[in-house]
């Protein structure tokens, strides 16, 4: 809920309340004196003497006799409150054809003030408040019209209508029938009644004694009804709906602003936000309001999400334009109806305030000052980020209506007993206090604080922990400010603006136990203290926190530190079973188990740590090879796994086994060296023995092929690869005497070039293959003589053609 910023919002509330009081006291009392003033004074009621005895204290226009008894024509508020019985029935009928509200009020008054001796009392006038601008105001009684006069009130939008009649003596009664028409004021005008096509907003009232007042509101069946105060019942008949109540909302009778709306006639606009569709309901043709709200939704909602640090939570179906916020001084977010109701004024700070209430409300935070303070602080940041102008109201700690903000109570459903001064002070002081507390935080730190607070995180848990504790209040805020945000001086601000004297007494107890808690947190290393203690600290149950801290003693957190140090020394993580047992302990039995098991866990962890470090120690390659063969590292890993699972006996046995393997690896390494040396000597002996059995044979000389008869030097050079192709002059590759892959295993031949003359040339002899001498040994036979190369036979192609050319 946020205060409206209309120029007349709070004036309206005050004026209506004042008007109701005036309706009761308005009248005229007269006393007729037939005896001496002393007698009249003696018989005058104490209230008269007390209120009017000093002449200087009499209100303007009041005549006071020497005895203190008022003369005829004097106003007597005290007497009227005690001496006038009043009943009234008010009926409001919406007329869609004329776009007005027709009002009838039947009031019955009875003089209940007995005559007192020679003095009697009578009333000759009675009045009711009507909206300024009301038309056709009439009053009748017993079929006769009464004269009506109008007087201004403290509220410039309300007029006092007074009807005059003959004096009403004790025991007499009179019924007055009032009627008038409410035409309504234009949208965004100064007045606070609105009547138009498909909508109407106005204040209903019926002044009288409890049980003697009723209010009825009649409208077409298609219209929806919203009331701000009291409980109305509904009936349907003849195409109409009638909402009525007879329950007094205060000591003067009934007062309740109401709204009528026909959704079919209202302008409806759908806006998609965060994957959901919202409905905007505005007065017909009020496009300016719709445009304003739509833009703030689409542009501002992502900014709110960023500042709050959370996605939009939903819980909103529609945003409705209404004048009721202008009347009562508040706009509001209704989580049950899932709607925001704001006035016609285009107030973006108020709009973002109500939008932020979908995150920050009574379900997410405890304490009205905390809800309204953070909501307004966030709204101001959104306005600044979106380029708007931030409106801040200054406030002093000793201003009118000042109170400890923690005592600022939520308004009742009926908005009864509202202290305007207190509301003004608190609505200004709450956001001012929040802004003082977070003044040193940057945007990211502010977002982290708001997000953690709304999620119900504990300052004694790791950031991001999703465990939801009790609804966060000022205590949660103080813990997060000091422990997460590092804010100094938060206690001083809270003591000055928020806390009562009783709440301030909690702070020294908190300081004392927090000192012990942080000492415990230091003693147990990186682990968090047991959950039971963290819960007590979060809930500010410092006495129980001290008891549970003593239950685990000093040896248990020291054992936790030993476990962590031993694990870190060997490079393996601290055993999860031990950590879970320590951090999740929350009962007396848990603490007893810890005191028994955690010290032994520390001993076993140190034993496993020693074994792992021995297994990981750098040694000579032979010993490390032996450790690999013995699977020493696997044994160490199994010991760590058993320790992590909480199997202490198995972990201890594994550590001992690992240590034994490490010690054994040295001797296994020596044995490996002996075996390897023996194998090397054996191989050397075998090689030497084999060489003794071999003998060396002379290498065979390589024989060259003899020259071929009839082959020229040029041909020999060509065959040996040194010749140049005739007529070319360029060097040619050497011809290999060995067969190619395509030639297979056939014996190679050398082919001579054709002779230029007519004579046939003798074919060149075949060249022998190049042969390597075979290996020799004592078991080899003598090599055979090389075969004489065969002369190649002439082929048919080598004959002489008819023209004398060799082919």
TrEMBL record:
<feature type="transmembrane region" description="Helical">
    <location>
        <begin position="667"/>
        <end position="688"/>
    </location>
</feature>
<keyword id="KW-0812">Transmembrane</keyword>
<feature type="compositionally biased region" description="Low complexity">
    <location>
        <begin position="730"/>
        <end position="741"/>
    </location>
</feature>
<keyword id="KW-1133">Transmembrane helix</keyword>
<keyword id="KW-0472">Membrane</keyword>
<feature type="signal peptide">
    <location>
        <begin position="1"/>
        <end position="40"/>
    </location>
</feature>
<feature type="compositionally biased region" description="Pro residues">
    <location>
        <begin position="766"/>
        <end position="777"/>
    </location>
</feature>
<protein>
    <recommendedName>
        <fullName>Peptidase MA superfamily protein</fullName>
    </recommendedName>
</protein>
<keyword id="KW-0732">Signal</keyword>
<feature type="region of interest" description="Disordered">
    <location>
        <begin position="721"/>
        <end position="807"/>
    </location>
</feature>
């Amino acid at each position: 809920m946020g205060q409206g910023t209309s120029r007349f919002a709070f004036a309206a509330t005050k004026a209506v309340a004042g008007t109701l009081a005036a309706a009761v006291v308005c009248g005229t009392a007269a006393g007729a004196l037939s005896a001496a003033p002393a007698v009249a004074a003696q018989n005058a009621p104490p209230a008269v003497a007390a209120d009017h005895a000093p002449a200087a204290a009499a209100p303007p226009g009041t005549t006071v006799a020497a005895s203190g008894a008022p003369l005829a024509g004097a106003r007597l508020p005290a007497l009227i409150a005690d001496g006038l019985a009043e009943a009234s029935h008010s009926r409001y009928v919406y007329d869609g054809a004329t776009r007005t509200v027709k009002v009838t009020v039947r009031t019955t008054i009875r003089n209940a003030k007995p005559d007192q001796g020679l003095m009697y009392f009578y009333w000759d006038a009675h009045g009711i408040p009507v909206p300024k601008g009301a038309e056709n105001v009439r009053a009748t009684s017993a079929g006769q019209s009464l004269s009506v006069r109008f007087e201004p009130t403290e509220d410039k939008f309300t007029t006092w209508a007074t009807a005059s009649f003959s004096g009403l003596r004790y025991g007499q009664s009179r019924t007055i029938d009032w009627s008038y028409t409410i035409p309504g004021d234009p949208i965004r005008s100064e007045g606070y009644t609105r009547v138009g096509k498909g909508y109407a907003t106005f204040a209903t009232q019926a002044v009288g004694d409890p049980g003697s007042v009723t209010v009825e509101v009649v409208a077409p069946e298609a219209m929806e009804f919203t009331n701000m105060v009291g409980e109305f019942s509904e009936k349907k008949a003849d195409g109409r709906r009638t909402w009525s109540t007879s329950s007094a909302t205060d000591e003067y009778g009934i007062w309740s602003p109401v709204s009528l709306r026909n959704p079919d006639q209202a302008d409806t606009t759908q806006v998609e936000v965060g994957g959901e569709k919202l409905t905007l309901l505005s007065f017909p043709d009020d496009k300016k309001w719709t445009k304003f709200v739509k833009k703030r939704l689409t542009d501002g909602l992502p900014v709110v999400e960023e500042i709050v640090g959370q996605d939009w939570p939903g819980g909103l179906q529609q945003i409705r334009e209404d004048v009721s916020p202008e009347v009562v001084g508040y706009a509001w977010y209704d989580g049950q109806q899932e709607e925001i109701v704001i006035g016609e004024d285009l107030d973006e700070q108020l709009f973002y305030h109500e939008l932020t209430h979908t995150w920050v409300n009574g379900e997410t935070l405890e304490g009205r000052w905390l809800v309204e303070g953070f909501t307004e602080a966030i709204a101001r940041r959104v306005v600044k980020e979106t380029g708007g102008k931030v409106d801040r109201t200054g406030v002093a700690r000793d201003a009118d209506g000042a109170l400890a903000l923690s005592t600022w109570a939520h308004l009742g459903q009926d908005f009864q007993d509202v202290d305007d001064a207190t509301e003004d002070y608190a609505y200004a002081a709450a956001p001012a206090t929040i802004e003082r507390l977070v003044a040193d935080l940057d945007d990211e730190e502010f977002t982290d604080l708001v997000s953690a607070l709304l999620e119900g995180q504990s300052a004694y848990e790791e950031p991001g922990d999703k465990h939801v504790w009790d609804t966060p209040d000022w205590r949660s805020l103080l813990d997060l400010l000091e422990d997460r945000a590092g804010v100094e001086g938060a206690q001083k601000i809270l003591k000055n603006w928020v806390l009562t004297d009783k709440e301030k007494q909690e702070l020294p107890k908190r300081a004392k136990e927090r000192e012990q808690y942080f000492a415990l947190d230091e003693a147990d290393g990186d682990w968090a203290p047991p959950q039971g203690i963290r819960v007590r600290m979060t809930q500010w149950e410092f006495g129980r926190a001290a008891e549970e801290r003593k239950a685990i003693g000093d040896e248990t957190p020291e054992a936790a530190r030993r476990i962590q140090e031993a694990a870190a020394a060997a490079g393996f993580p601290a055993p999860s079973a031990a950590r879970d047992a320590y951090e999740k302990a929350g009962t007396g039995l848990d603490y007893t188990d810890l005191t028994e098991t955690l010290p032994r866990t520390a001993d076993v962890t140190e034993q496993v740590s020693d074994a792992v470090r021995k297994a990981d120690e750098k040694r000579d390659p032979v010993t490390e090879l032996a450790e690999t063969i013995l699977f020493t590292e696997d044994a160490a890993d199994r010991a760590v796994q058993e320790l992590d699972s909480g199997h202490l006996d198995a972990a201890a046995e594994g550590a001992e086994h690992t240590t034994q393997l490490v010690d054994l690896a040295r001797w296994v390494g020596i044995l490996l060296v002996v075996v390897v040396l023996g194998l090397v000597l054996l191989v050397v002996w075998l090689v030497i023995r084999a060489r003794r059995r071999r003998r060396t044979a002379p290498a065979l000389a390589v024989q060259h092929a003899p020259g071929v008869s009839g082959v020229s030097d040029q041909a020999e050079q060509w065959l040996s690869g040194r010749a140049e192709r005739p007529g070319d002059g360029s060097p040619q590759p050497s011809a290999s005497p060995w067969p190619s892959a395509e030639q297979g295993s056939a014996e190679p031949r050398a082919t001579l070039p054709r002779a230029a003359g007519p004579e046939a040339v003798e074919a060149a002899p075949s060249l022998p293959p190049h042969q390597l001498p075979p290996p020799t040994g004592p078991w080899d036979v003598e090599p055979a003589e090389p075969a004489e190369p065969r002369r190649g036979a002439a082929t048919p192609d080598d004959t002489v053609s008819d023209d004398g050319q060799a082919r």
